[in-house]
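Our preliminary data section would be incomplete without showing what the modeling component actually yields. Below, a chain of 87 amino acids is followed by its predicted structure, encoded as tokens that our downstream tools consume directly.
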Amino acid sequence: MARFILLLLLVLFVLRAVWRLFHGIVQGALEADRPRDARSVQAGVKMARDPVCGTFVVPSRALTTTHAGETLYFCSEKCLNAYRKRG
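Predicted structure:
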């Protein structure tokens, strides 16, 4: 009897996994035709590297400062303040 219950649980688990996989594929196919919202990052945007922590940031969303005629991009105020303290 215990063997039957374990087999039934295994079958249910496998069916649920297959169903979730199928459902995810269908959802992905349906959402591929929808336009993206304005908050999503556009493909092909060149990223800038934060000189303090090395994080890559989208220039339009980053904090900036200018040093020696070059614009530097920062991921957070913490990194911007750390850079200002250094130099």
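The first helix runs from residue 2 to 31. The beta strands are 48-49, 56-57, 63-67, 70-74. Preliminary results of this kind motivate Aim 1 of the renewal.
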